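Workshop exercise sheet. Pairs work together: one partner reads the sequence aloud, the other fills in the structure field after running the prediction. Swap roles for the next sheet.
Pair: D.N. / O.F.
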Amino acid sequence: MKRLAITILLSLNAAAALAQDHADYRLQARDFRALQGEYDVDGGRTAHVFARGGRYFVQVAGAKQVEIVAVAPYQFVGVGLPVSVRFNALENGIVTGFTMRLNQAPAQ
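Structure field:
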């Protein structure tokens, strides 16, 4: 299981602007595989990052799964929900965790 202290922040940042700036970005399935897995979340819960049917999701234990779309390397926004997710990666590509922000403008 990947270790992580996930940070959930309330913010009014405009993820939609980020999505618009990177509208041409296409994530390759092989690149998402490095992000998939189980992450320990603050409070003893677990977050599950996974793909299903060519779509990408994050789900924190006890909460609804959220579909996410890539807008840039390691950066995602929620589909129809005000969420953004940014994965933290070392220069060698090893993912060390992610930050989930609420109250972002959702992707359409």
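Discussion prompt: The domain at 7-102 is CATH 2.40.128 (Lipocalin). What would you look at next?
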